[in-house]
Structure formats: C-alpha cells, structure tokens
Amino acid sequence: MSTMNDDRPLQNTADNHDPPLEKDFSNGYGHGNLNNNNFTMGAEDSNGGALNRIRTAGSISMSPELFEKLYLSPETRVKGDLRKTFGNPTPIALIGFLLSLTPLSCDLMGWRGAGGNGASDSAAYFFFGGVLMILGSIGEWIVGNTFPFVVFGTFGAFWLTFGGTLVPSFNAYGAYVTTPAQMAGQDGNPGNPLGLQTPGFNASFAFFLLFMGLVCFIFLICSLRTNVVFFLIFLSLIGAFGCLAGAYWNLALAYENAANTMAAKRAGRLVVAGGAFTFVTSMAGWWIFFAIMLASLDFPFSIPVGDLSHIIKGASEKQKIKDAV
What we know:
Layout: H1 47-55, H2 64-71, H3 82-85, H4 90-109, H5 122-143, H6 146-166, H7 180-183, H8 199-222, H9 228-256, H10 261-296, H11 315-324
Helix pairs in contact: 2-10, 4-5, 4-6, 4-10, 5-6, 8-9, 9-10
C-alpha cells in the first residue's frame, strides 16, 4: 500500500501542447474537438489549469470558418499574441456603420415624412460612423487584419466626410454661392443653404459618391474570400452609390435649367432607389453583426453567413497543395 503526502501540491498532467487561448491562431490550432482529452477537466488538472479552461470554455479552438465570421477576413499568421490580448474590434466598427446607415436609408426613402438627405443625424455620422469605425479600424490594424482595417477606415472617413459636408461651418456648399443676389443677407454665414441648389455643388459631390462606388467594387472582389453576407453588403453599396451619384447629377441638371422637370423627377426616384439599396446593406449588416455577437459569446446556436473562404483558396494555400504534390 503506497503512501501519499496530503500536503503535496497536485501535479499538472495537462499536455504542454494545449491549444492556445481564444484569439491565438498563430500556432495552427483551428480544428480542436471539445471531446478531446486535452479539453477535459478532471482531477488530474491543477487548480490554475482548471480555472484557465473555465475562463475560456467554448473558445479554446477556432475553425477557419469561425475566424472568418468573427473578423470578416480569412485567417492570417501574425507575430505575437495580440489576438488573445485584445478584444475583437469588428463588432464595434459594424455597429457604428449600422447606426449611421440604417436611419439614413429610411431618410432617403422618405419613410414617415423623413428627408433632408439625413441632415438630422449629422452627429451620428461623426460619433457612430466616424469615431466607432475609426476605432474599429485601428483595432483591426493592431491585431493584424488588413482587409477589415482598410474597409472600416475607409467608411469611417466616409462618414466623417459626409457629416462634415452637412455641417454649415465646413462651407462645403456655401462656397458655391457666388452671385450677389444669392449672397445678399448672408454676410458672415459660411453655410449659405442656397449652395445646395447650385449645379456646381451637386455635380461635384456626385463624383465623390461615384468613386466610393469604385472602392466598394474593389472591396466586393476581395470579399469573395470572406462570406456571402459581406459580399452582399458591398454589392448593394455599389448600387446605392451609383444611384446617389446619378441623383446628384440629375439635380445639377435640374438646378441649371428650372424647366428640366424630368431631371428633377429622375433625381427623386434615384434617391429613393439609393435608399432601398442602403436598406438592403443595413439588413445584411445587422445579420452579420448578430452572427458575430453570438459567436463571440459562445452561444449554443449560430446563424449562417455563407462562408466563402474554403471555396476560393488563397494563393499560399494553393502553393502548399502544389508543393505537397
């Protein structure tokens, strides 16, 4: 009969090669099974080891599909442990985008008498669309996710630009008021509202929207390596920016020639169409935001986003397959 000293500390028999914590994917752990012995807490685990597993229960391993859902980007190898040190910045950027775009889409469609190109939500464009998306972009940059870093940074700057255009003190449209009759009584007022009715302002602002559509087209191609919902977001944004650019060009024609009523009517229809496209974008965004939050909290159920990362293989993955052959 063997004897044992009760004061002796419990031995930790956990494998030295346990999978990393939630966001450390650099060691290639991505297909762990929760039924594996390495994930089982028993009497042989040390107190510290058990606490570590309780703290990270359900998030010890992560498949490439789950990584793509959480970060909207295929898994890439990065140096260091920043992904397990910092929280996931993706949801905060998404909520900033959604709480700016969703009300704007309703404004553009004129629901419940809304209108004014969303001017009532100028502060939201700064603090939700601008601040939260820039913070999310910086967070993605820190953890090494290049694609969402560029996407969120681009749209954060877009919302700051759009909000600034609507603020009178920026004089974005007031600068186009040049005739003495229009300037009368507006001395010292940099935001002369008559500038909104000038052909120059409307035609010029349309180019900004046009090239935002071009950026979204590039993002659309890149999103083929992410998921179906993210792809639909950029596809609908291309339609939205195209319609809104056309609306502003038609407004320029209408303001240039007051008799051109067809251009004014066409502009109105294009604004509504642009709002419809952005509403589709918003609904897809809310879906993917919900999916990310469920995955982040390890809910027992999930909603699909249509992972595409396993369909379109990366160049490095194809090279590995080629080298293996």
